[in-house]
Each structure stands twice: as structure tokens, then as C-alpha cells.
């Protein structure tokens, strides 16, 4: 997807949900923040939760939304 220069991760996630519909709305809380059981990676590097709001994406970067997996 194409976004403006210096777009933050929350803005990118919101656009992602708009593009792919209600099925992906479960990724975000009502306030637009990512739910706690997902992790964000940019170019295969984990982005800490406290840095997501301020992380500016650059041209050509890849965002991955990784669900936490638990088992027993």
C-alpha cells in the first residue's frame, strides 16, 4: 500500500483496516491502538509497544503483524 512519507505505524494500521474491511477490525481497539496480543515487526525487527506511536515508516519498509501464540 502507498502512504505518505513519515507515516506512523498507527496510521498505517488504520489504513490497512480501511482497505481490507471489518474482518481485520479485531486488530485494533476502538481508540485505534493495536490489541495487546499482536506484535509489530518492521523489516523483520520487533518494534516495542512504547515505540509504535512514534515510529516513522520509510519508503519500501515491510510491516508484519504477528499474533502471539500460546499453547500447553
Structure commentary:
The structure is a single chain. The chain has two helices and three strands; from the N terminus they run H-E-E-H-E. It has about 70 residues and is of the alpha+beta class. It has one domain. It has a three-stranded antiparallel β-sheet with strand order 2-1-3. The longest helix is centred in the N-terminal third of the chain and has 12 residues, at about 10-20. The radius of gyration is 12 Å and the shape is globular. The mean pLDDT is about 85.
Give the C-alpha Rg: 12 Å
How many distinct domains? 1
Shape: globular
Q: What proportion of the residues is helical, as a percent range?
A: 10-25%
Order of helices and strands: HEEHE
Give the strand order, joined by hyphens, for the main sheet.
2-1-3
Question: How large is the share of residues in beta strands?
Answer: 15-25%
Structural class: alpha+beta
What is the rounded distance between the termini?
A: 37 Å
Count of individual helical segments: 2
> What is the β-strand count?
3
Write down the oligomeric state: single chain
Q: Give the low-confidence spans.
A: none
The residue-averaged pLDDT reads: 84
How does the major sheet shape up? Answer: 3 strands, antiparallel
Please supply descriptive tags for the structure shown above.
2 helices; alpha+beta; 72 residues
Provide a concise account of the structure shown.
The protein contains 2 helices and 3 strands, in the order αββαβ. It has 72 residues and is of the alpha+beta class. The relative contact order is 0.24.
Amino acid at each position: 500500500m502507498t502512504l505518505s512519507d513519515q507515516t506512523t505505524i498507527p496510521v498505517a494500521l488504520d489504513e490497512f483496516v480501511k482497505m481490507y474491511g471489518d474482518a481485520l477490525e479485531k486488530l485494533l481497539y476502538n481508540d485505534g491502538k493495536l490489541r495487546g496480543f499482536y506484535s509489530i515487526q518492521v523489516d523483520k525487527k520487533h518494534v516495542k509497544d512504547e515505540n509504535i506511536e512514534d515510529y516513522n515508516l520509510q519508503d519500501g519498509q515491510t510491516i508484519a503483524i504477528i499474533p502471539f501464540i500460546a499453547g500447553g
